Amino acid sequence: MKHRANGIDLFRIFAATMVVAIHTFPFQSIAPFLDEVITLTVFRVAVPFFFMITGYFLLGRLSLNFSYNNNQRVKKYLYKIGMIYLYSILLYFPLSLLNGTISLKMNILLLLKVFIFDGTFYHLWYFPASIIGTILVTLLLRSIGFKLTVAFSTCLYLVGLGGDSWYGITNQVPLLNKLYTFIFSWSDYTRSGVFFTPVFLCLGIFAYRVSKKLTASKILNLLFYVFIIGMTFESIFLHRFTNVKHDSMYLLLPSCALILFLMLLNWQPKLKVKESADLTLLVYILHPLVIVIVHSISKYIPILKNSLLNFLLVVVCSFILAQLLLNLKRKLRVSKQKIPFERASKEISASAIHHNINEIRKIIPKNTNIMGVVKANAYGCGMVEVAYELEKIGISFFCVATIEEAIALRKSGNQGDILILGYTHPNRINDIKKYNLIQSIVSEEHGKVLNLKKIPIRCHLQVDTGMHRLGVTPNVTIIQQMYLFSNLKIEGIYSHLGSSDSLEQESIARTNTQIFLFNNILSDLEQMGISYGYTHIQSSYGILNYPELSFDFVRIGILCYGFLSDYNSPTKIPIDLQPIVKVKASLITERIVEAGEYVGYGLGAKVEKRTRIGVVSIGYADGIPRALSNAKLTLEFKGQSIKQIGNICMDMMLVDLSEVEDISLNDELIVLPNISKIADEEQTITNELLSRLGSRLGTELN
User: Fold this and answer.
1) Threshold 0.85, pTM exceeds
2) Phi and psi for 370 in degrees, rounded to 5?
3) Residue 535: enclosing H or E segment and its boundaries?
4) Per UniProt, where does substrate bind?
5) What pLDDT does 341 receive?
6) Whether 87 is catalytic
7) What is the pLDDT of residue 619?
8) Dist CA 566 CA 689 (whole Å)
9) Which residues are annotated as a binding site?
10) Binding-site residue positions for substrate
11) Which of 80, 392, 601, 677 is an active site residue?
12) Looking at the domain 350-561, which fold is it?
């Protein structure tokens, strides 16, 4: 929704100014009636606007999907607002004591009333109201759904309305009088998180739900004018003919706030205000302090007692003070740029990831989507960073091997579907549910035990078509039974090809048998009337050697990272790949070793002449194979080749710097300049070499 935020962000400034006006009465010295009509009526849209922002950006997604990440966002918001409220209480504590809002002589119940509902200073009610309202709406959404939540919140607002601007009327009804007497024993006003906040949070949620369909409309403008004029007449009537207890709530205020918010979503001003949310939050918190200061100064400068001038001065000073604090925050904040890893790191190329995915998309059918296989820490490249980049280019389905990997990916903020390819013990079923993961059913027994747990979970059914590793027996009767289990929501079915990386005749025959068996199972299930969900059987080599296949997904692993597993095995379809990872380490010290001396562990490396030796801060614990010791590994620095000498140690390695120019301590060297060549020389595959890269290596995404 970032493309719709410009109008909202700019209006935050106007709304914050309106709040200042409500607390300063700018027209008091000129025409008090204008304060009644404008300040205490029209400007009342300001606070609902801020609550609607919370509903739109925080609870909108939650109302559609109670995922782990959406729930975490709510928890973080509540914690943040709670801390802001605490700091604000401390800031205004002396003034709260002076004006009697709180007193050390108050009993516990009265203090709770002040802290939970009223706020310890007149503007601080907003923060507990936001917390209570958010908790209430979240619980209602979870238990009764959005429509009933709106209805319930509307009823709460109407109750609150009767204790606010309409109190002069409702107070005449004995039963209602008793109700409001009880309510006011707990809160000075009905403008609170119980009666006021929920309806505006719901309106923000509604705006989120309709925002994609929203278009600019003159009808919205007309409706806004109708409702704002109607609310003005409502206010005039209530102020003139009734005893208004407060004027925060009007019958037409929700309608005005909703139409205004929808108009702002369509408004795309060129002017953009940086950090408008933080700026206006600080203005809201600080402006009463500025009011006190300006009021004190006005005793010595009488002209400042002019209400309009007083208001303008408070607004200007509040924004200046808020901006100064933001500037200070930037200076104190740790630089957003990652601190360079002084020891060793992996540099991940975002552009290479994009390139590789684009090349893959050229090969697969247009209707086939990509699953990003990010197991084993994205083949050693950095699971969180790679998945983040894949999400940016439209990949929203990810595969991992274990539930621990899946949870780590979800906790990183990943919003996509996450399929666990491997076995997960049924005792972890609560975690599968909690983190909204998709579990592979890897055997008949696995499926039966998971179903007996009586906790509904999302699943994909893995079928053993000939790999003979994981998967249920390719018997359609058994598979049908899995689909009938009430607690297994099977959303897809898949298999794995055991020999798709080879074009030898025996490998082709095995692969074709697997594909034939898989297709037959799908056909039989279809004839049985079973909706089997998504289908996928190809991994990286499956798309290169069997591009004619057309299933819902392909599982892309090694190709995403810019490598083939084995460059000696030809593929039917060529592909232009760019390696996404560079392994770098720092030169941490150097020294001269005289001829005839041994270096490193053992006696395998003896220098024949006076040699300049350097120490590079990476070793076999970081994934560099120890078998590459003694000149089998070549590093690079600014295009120069540097030979590794001696045995590679756990945490470092030695290099010969005798022929290297312009290298200094702390310079970074490329440690594995040609991963595919090294894998070939070590008679392994690039998958293994990459997956060895250790967790001590930092990850830099560029």
Assistant:
1) no
2) -105, 135
3) strand 534-536
4) 469, 650
5) 52
6) no
7) 95
8) 12
9) 469, 650
10) 469, 650
11) 601
12) TIM Barrel (3.20.20)
